[in-house]
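Need the bound structure for pyridoxal-5'-phosphate, inputs here:
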Amino acid sequence: MIPMVDLKQQYQALREEIDAGILRALAETQFILGPNVAAFEQEAAAYLGVEHAVACASGTDALHLSLIAADVGPGDEVITSAFTFIATAEAIRYVGATPVFVDIDPQTFNIDPACVARAVSGATRALLPVHLFGMPAEMEGLLSMCEGHGITVIEDCAQSFGAQIGHRYTGSFGACGAFSFFPSKNLGGYGDGGMITTNSEETAKRLKMLRNHGSNMRYHHDLIGYNSRLDELQAVVLRAKLKRIHDYNDNRRRVARLYTNLLSDTGVQTPREVGGYRHVYHQYTILSPHRDRIAAKLQSADIASAIYYPIPLHRQAAFANAYRALELPVTERVAKQCLSLPMYPELSEAAIRKIAATVKEALVD
Ligand SMILES: *Cc1c(COP(=O)(O)O)cnc(C)c1O
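Answer from helper R.:
Posting the output first, comments after.
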């Protein structure tokens, strides 16, 4: 069986360091906002080239707290993609704002700047681009559009830890970047976790209060906050993996390169590499009208594959009433044709060759 992700190999390789760190943290018994969380925040901020990183309990919370910190609320519109995980739009609804879904580019699967421009209205308060599958959204165009309109940009970096445009990392472009450390993400803990990046000291201060009951001094509460902290044990795991994240992502890129070479003459659409963009392949996603046949063939060869995402957000039951009349043709076609193949840094060349050969077989059958 070739799985979509294999977290065991990574743990085996880091076992001594992680186990020792966890035992030390257990001996210290400083489980909430302890020294490993503080150190992780500094190390992550340094890696990403941002002034501040504020750890929290999940990627969903990172999005939610970022929107609160940007004062987005009822009556406001937030432009985003419908081709993403539901948490992106849930966070917009948590603050009482309205998600405005726009179409995507068929090759990068990211929000299409021309569609964003058409969706801007007097009520637009924020833009929430998603760096989907580890491919950075087209930030230059999006940022210059937003500057002129007083629109706050919050990046959904849940799938893009380490992705870059030029020398800059995702999470350093907008007012805030929201990261997830769900175990299967490029930088994953051993439970839930998240983080917000920002270059504003004032925003960082506010986020630190929001994640901890509106308090920066024990039992003094300046605002209504939340219980959304990263725990110390997760911080131990994340510190060990952060040291190696660049290599992990380089290995994902190695896997992707080989897939793309092997699939080049099959007629399936492979992920687009854009000059100057460092795609970190949270997923390696192909497009084919024969998607279901390919998935069935892979399954019969004991190879996992997955459809991210089969139902765009404007077609989800949770939102459907509000978006019944909305049509997003590219999003809808991509949802019908997309298939993600196994992707993790340790995936062997032999496995990649077997997967690619099985995809080819499905297409000649
Ligand atoms: C995983 C993910 C989230 C949510 O992160 P959690 O840590 O699971 O709450 C948000 N947006 C996207 C695009 C994601 O992939």
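Comments: The first strand starts at residue 52 and ends at 56. The radius of gyration is 20 Å.
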